[in-house]
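Entry 14. Ran structure prediction on the chain below.
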Amino acid sequence: MINTVAWFEIATDDPQGAEKFYGELFGWSFATDEGSAKNGMDYRLVGYPGGDGPKGGLYATGGGSPNHAVFSVVVADTGAACERVESLGGQVVFKLLENPNGPDFAYVRDTSGNLFGLFTPPHLRGTRE
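Output, structure tokens:
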């Protein structure tokens, strides 16, 4: 699964409205992500009817960042992937490495300015691509 799209995120300043919209549109359910809550974030995991686990999340921004929807790619090493992004002319917008309560992750921009995410699940930390 390395280097594949494995997650999506919807960030909004109206999480209840987004839950209602996507819940009614697709039948999605939402549950608090306890690891994110420990970091002081309101992040909710998206569940699907008949799905085997969350493949996305809803981030309640509280107005602290722009609303967006973004895909994320699982990588073996988020820090190294961020370095590659920059070496290829992209930009690292935010990164959290050695996250004790969840995956290492980063938001980056490609050379056209498109935002996307990178993440390394805790069980993959230390592996090589």
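Residues 4-124 form a domain with the 2,3-Dihydroxybiphenyl 1,2-Dioxygenase; domain 1 fold (CATH 3.10.180.10). Will compare against last week's run tomorrow.
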